[in-house]
Write a structure and sequence with these properties.
By secondary structure, this protein is of the alpha/beta class. It has helices at residues 7-24, 45-50, 73-84, 102-111, 138-147, 157-164, 169-192, 199-212, 278-297, 304-317; strands at residues 28-32, 57-61, 67-69, 96-97, 118-122, 152-155, 218-225, 251-260, 263-272, 327-330, 372-375, 378-381, 384-387, 390-393, 400-401, 410-411. The protein contains ten helices and 16 strands. The strands form four sheets. Strands 4-3-2-1-5-6 form a six-stranded mixed β-sheet, sandwiched between helices. Strands 7-8-9-16 form a four-stranded mixed β-sheet. Strands 10-11-14-15 form a four-stranded antiparallel β-sheet, with helices on one face.
């Protein structure tokens, strides 16, 4: 049976937000949501309040339903049609507004008597990795500040993000469904990959599996080659060129982003095509050791910094090099593991800018049951990289491992097209 969010889940969230407002001395919250096609790690706190289409700006006060300012009339038509079909909508029609410009924000705050209020803002603070200095446009925010000179606006992004990181029981059920969809996407990719197959066919197989499961996964990251060191969308998705054709000895690196009901999961994928270099297997052993160390450290009462340090112990002890971070939070994407300056270790990087080490972000954050994380340990010997992992949740006693399938080096089993 497909899990859904009930009105009890709605009330749990709204009550939690209002408890937060009272604790922080806030009269209201002003919550900005990123565009619905934002891709991986979207800033979508608006949907936490609305259970609706991403991209709204939400005003939350101490009583009543939030007011949802929408990007355009099509959002209202979607709400109307969903209501007509019998779906339970969290925001009533009278609390919808057909625009989210600075003018409509000011009007909504004025209508709620908030001209001189203390208002917590989600959208001004850091949202890693894409928005380290916030998502609110300068022109919009300058107009709001000019129109409401007596209001006290306070960034609350990090505090509110940590408030909602522990998922409720209904959210974890939805997260499990998202993780299962991610596994199905990877299984389709493994079944398709083979020498002679364009990597675009592997990409298409994975995305199609996600669509068939009844959701809209974000565009995945995918690269392939015998010794490729890269991450991100495939080159043929960015420039006019032919997709690469797989060959024996290649590996496929992919990061698969499943999204079901606004709960996000990630699969970190390395698929061996035929006989691959032995160093891939060696690197996978180090990455798996880091994954297992993370499972052992993911316990209530410990800190995110403890988790990061535990995952890096086997990484630091080996004689190759790590590619990217080993772990970050999900739902929302908030805490980020430490990174190493990597370019000095890759041949052929002369002339490129150096990348400095960076510490973990929010290392002091306490681990609480219900928090979800992307475990993505990676390791390389020379140019032979293994990247594996998936979504893990802090349990009451032991971790809840949702994507064990991709916590290993996978092997293609497809046939050439």
């Amino acid at each position: 049976m497909t899990p859904v969010f009930s009105l009890a889940e709605r009330d749990r969230r709204w009550d939690l937000a209002r408890t937060f407002m009272a604790r922080e001395g806030l009269d209201a919250l002003l919550v900005f949501g990123e565009h619905e096609d934002a891709g991986p790690a979207p800033v979508a706190y608006d949907t936490w309040f609305t259970n609706g289409r991403p991209g709204a700006t939400v005003v939350v006060t101490a009583e009543g339903a939030p007011v949802s300012l929408l990007p355009g009339p099509m959002y209202i038509m979607d709400h109307l049609e969903s209501s007509r079909r019998g779906e339970t909508m969290w925001i009533p029609p009278e609390n919808l507004r057909p625009a989210r410009s600075s003018r409509t924000i000011v009007e909504a705050l004025h209508a709620s008597g908030l001209d001189a209020a203390t208002i917590g803002v989600v959208g001004l603070g850091s949202h890693m990795p894409w928005h380290p200095e916030g998502i609110i446009p300068y022109g919009l925010w300058n107009a709001v500040l000019t129109a409401l000179p007596r209001a006290d606006f306070r960034p609350v992004d990090l505090a509110f993000g940590q408030l909602i990181l522990p998922l409720g029981a209904e959210e974890i059920a939805v997260l499990r469904r998202s993780a299962a969809i991610g596994d199905a996407m990877v299984e389709a990719m493994v079944a398709t990959a083979a020498p002679g197959v364009p990597e675009s066919h592997v990409y298409a197989a994975g995305m199609a599996a996600g669509y068939r499961q009844g959701t809209l996964p974000a565009a995945m990251h995918l690269w392939s080659g015998p010794d490729v060191i890269a991450a991100g969308p495939p080159a043929w998705g960015q420039r006019p060129q032919e997709p690469r054709t797989l060959a024996d000895g290649d590996v496929i690196y992919a990061e698969v982003f499943a999204n079901f009901g606004g709960r996000h999961t990630q699969n970190q994928v390395t698929i061996a095509v035929g006989d691959v270099h032995e160093d891939f297997h060696r690197a996978a052993l180090v990455a798996r050791a880091a994954y297992d160390a993370g499972l052992a450290a993911l316990r209530p009462g410990r800190t995110f910094g403890d988790l990061v340090d535990a995952m890096h112990e086997p990484i630091d002890a080996a004689d190759g090099w790590p590619f990217l971070i080993a772990v970050h939070s999900l739902n929302p994407g908030l805490s980020v593991g430490k990174g190493r300056g990597l370019f000095s270790r890759i041949p052929g990087t002369e002339g490129y800018p150096r990348i400095a080490d960076h510490p973990a972000f929010l290392p002091e954050m306490e681990l609480v049951p219900g928090m979800s994380f992307a475990f993505e340990p990676n390791y390389a010997y020379g140019r032979h990289l293994a990247h594996l992992g998936g979504t893990v949740v802090v349990g009451e006693d032991t971790p809840i491992e949702l994507n064990a399938y991709t916590a290993q080096l996978l092997h293609a089993r497809g046939d050439a097209a």
